[in-house]
Automatic annotation (TrEMBL):
Superkingdom of origin organism: Bacteria
A Gene Ontology BP annotation from the UniProt entry: phosphorelay signal transduction system
Response regulatory domain ranges (all copies): 2-129
Xref: SUPFAM superfamilies: CheY-like
Pfam families: Response_reg
PANTHER family xref list: TWO-COMPONENT RESPONSE REGULATOR, TWO-COMPONENT RESPONSE REGULATOR ARR22
Sequence positions bearing 4-aspartylphosphate: 55
Protein's recorded name: Two-component system, chemotaxis family, response regulator CheY
Keyword hit for Ubl conjugation: no
Species, as recorded: Paucidesulfovibrio gracilis DSM 16080
Phosphoprotein in keyword set: yes
Entry keywords, A to Z: Phosphoprotein
Lineage, highest ranks first: Bacteria, Pseudomonadati, Thermodesulfobacteriota, Desulfovibrionia, Desulfovibrionales
Amino acid sequence: MRALIVDDDFYSRSMLHDMLRTVAYCDIAVNGEEAVYAFKQSLENQTPYDLVCLDLVMPEMDGQQALREIRALETEYGTHPTQETKVIVITMLDDKKETHDAFFLGGATSYLVKPVEQDKLLAELRSLKLLDEVES
């Protein structure tokens, strides 16, 4: 599995990387602009990400805008809707409007509130069919 971790907070990035590194090859972006660039490169190289863990509140470009651009890139590159990258929005915001916007406007696959626990993250990966029971 290929994963892109997008978060402006070093601690959060490190924790997610520690949780995922045994089950995924992980790239890291510190803001939305880096995330969109990395995502575009993965499509151009025909090595798309299986998973994006995306913070919503970041400098330069926030997670909502990055998610819209990621979905637009998938459309531009002809990604079939059933093959879209799974995007887990991970944020400290426990806000119904942000949740609504991420799912219904941005196309997020799921949503977890920080601090993320490893068991919950792995359970979410299993529910998204990105991880088998034996891998976790």
